[in-house]
Amino acid sequence: MRVTASAVSLNVDDVPASSEFLQKHFGFREEMAADGFSSLKRDDAAMNVIFLRRGLPTLPADFRDVGAAGVLVVFVVDDLAGEDARLRAEGVTITHELTEEPWGERFLQVADPNGVIIQLVEWVTPS
Questions:
Q1: Terminal CA-CA length for the chain
Q2: What does pTM read for this prediction?
Q3: Does the N-terminal or the C-terminal CB of the chain have fewer CB atoms within 10 Å?
Q4: Which residues are paired to 107 by β-bridges?
Q5: Is the separation of the CB atoms in 27 and 86 below 8 Å?
């Protein structure tokens, strides 16, 4: 098998709201879009993020009405404190304050308009 690209697809109620949130606050650009569908990309990201409107008939029947729950979309960044300040200045609500774990993971979380959790991570030397 040869993997040529990767993506995560998330079912949401309001596709344009989630798409605009990633574009405005995280620098993604919309590569493809249609009714109930948006595929977003960053040149420096290892995966695309796809939003699908809940209930689409192209989704498996037992999956159609399930929203993106229990999933973290994680981006590793270089300057977490700087990202924290930038997001706050842009009016984004931080849903989990900047925290450092004993194993060296520093992170914070925000939620998009559909409740999709986006976690920013910076790895540091454990204290």
A1: 41
A2: 0.90
A3: N
A4: 99, 121
A5: no
The per-residue pLDDT for range 66-100, each reduced to its tens digit, is 877 778 999 999 999 999 999 999 999 999 999 99
**Tokens read off for 81:** 């404190």
Distance, CA of 100 to CA of 48 (rounded, Å)? 27
Residue 66 CA to residue 114 CA, distance in Å, equals 13
Distances in Å between the Cα of 106 and the Cα atoms of 50, 79, 89 are 26, 10, 20
Distance from C-alpha of 16 to C-alpha of 103, rounded to nearest angstrom: 37
Cα separations (Å) of 123 from 36, 73, 105? 35, 16, 5
CA–CA separation, 39 and 54 (whole Å) = 15
Q: Using CA atoms, how far apart are residues 52 and 41, in angstroms rounded to an integer? A: 15
